[in-house]
Amino acid sequence: MLLKLSKNTYVRQFGRFTYVLDRIQSSDQMFADAEVFLREIKRCPREKDDILREICSAYIKADAEEIAKDFEEFIAPLIQRKMILCGNTPEELEKGEQSFSYEANDPKTAEDSKQLTKQEIDYLPQTLLGEYFEKHPMLYQLQMDITQSCTERCLHCYIPDYNPVYLPLVKIKEVLDDFAAMGGLVITLSGGECMLHPDFDEIVKYARSKDLIVTILSNLTLCDDEKIQLLNQNEVSVQVSLYSMKPEVHDCITRRPGSWQKTKAAIEALRKAQIPCTIACPTMKQNYHDYLEVLNYARSLKMHAITDCIILGKMNGDTSNLACRLDLNETRSILEDIVFRAVPMKSEFFNPGKKAEMLDDEQWMNDKVCGAGFSSLCLSADGNYYPCAAWGGYILGNCNENSLNEIWEASPALLKLRSIRGRDLPKCAHCEDRDYCSVCMCRNFNETGNMFEPAEHFCKVAKINHELVDERQRRMVGNAGV
Ligand SMILES: C[S@@+](CC[C@H](N)C(=O)[O-])C[C@H]1O[C@@H](n2cnc3c(N)ncnc32)[C@H](O)[C@@H]1O
Ligand code: SF4
Ligand code: SF4
To answer: Is 192 in the pocket of ligand 2 (CB under 6 A)?
Structure first.
């Protein structure tokens, strides 16, 4: 009997935890003390007896029959879910491989996502991973903004200049080699518009040759049949921005007439080619009446969709792009929809049940502020490393001077970031609205020039959010009493 890891299954070891991710089912699991069982199952077929022999050699004192029984029990559910393939011949295993399909998958929009209890959240693989990374930072995801250049000029964009700067292929390969060697898993190619990079195809192929999960953030205006084929053959996932179903609204945001047509046609071509795609629809003054239509469109295609009304200042401290951000009245009306009429918006801060789970002041002050720098990094087209998308002003080092590993282990700016705790943001530490706010140092930095100084707009939004959630709570209690 032969066994192999499905092409969609990714395994990473984090301390005593083995993390198993199925790329196309978007499901993941965390196993404690299962490294020996999983490390011998590779992408190429292996005889089960050979695998068992290796496992037994790791447990010399244990009974071989017991080990075989435990191993069978361990792999049975993974075989059932086609994460591990099992068969008599390599051809049979190959036939068992599944590809992403919109017919087989029903990706959820934010509207459909179930609100989980605290206990459920505590045992999610993502929560366990977050806790692990806090104690043992490990680079899990790397975003490479491979060019600053772009085909659009979006009103809200945080990129200050669209210079024709391209991260050289040779440097990209070097960083990808390091990333793979460090156990990294997800590579996100972004920009600017990543398809403008002259070596885009080669970059995608190289990242895949390292057995990494590759995702691109793109406006898809350059996505022709050849690019569709490339994405398909290399099993790339896509996130695309679509701002409205009205061409004139989308084009007024991108400031490129005809862009809606191109983007929408490309989305539908991706759908036809069964390439996993998520539609992002950030909301701003120009499109805040339109996002529901975009979500419905996504649902009609069975595509995942996300929306958000958080617009950050530019990476260089210029806040002129914030003119398009919703003002407080507009934000209130959206928040009212979310809180009272269950209109979807991706955020955890509207859940009245959350009150019971809040951290007390002491806990909050000792906790980290966000996950930046614990499991992910960004690399800009000019070679600078920075902590997260949009935080380009906080430079951690440069790929022309230091290897990725050196940055990750020893960048003083990164070590400083990891040491920041709630108490370092005094206004937030004693703020009555902090549980209704997603405190974000990048947001602060780009808008106030100081990562510890809250951006006033978001404080006001948090206050409105707090009021509305309290109001909903009162109504719920009132209704329950009737
Ligand atoms: C910077 S773009 C790069 C990828 C690609 N050009 C695109 O537009 O999808 C990545 C995402 O960031 C969003 N974005 C751009 N500027 C933003 C800002 N100031 N605040 C929040 N999101 C922003 C875009 O709408 C897009 O969804
Ligand atoms: S949001 Fe994306 S498409 Fe729009 S200008 Fe910025 S990088 Fe270009
Ligand atoms: S509302 Fe302002 S002060 Fe309060 S937690 Fe959020 S950012 Fe900090």
So the answer is: yes
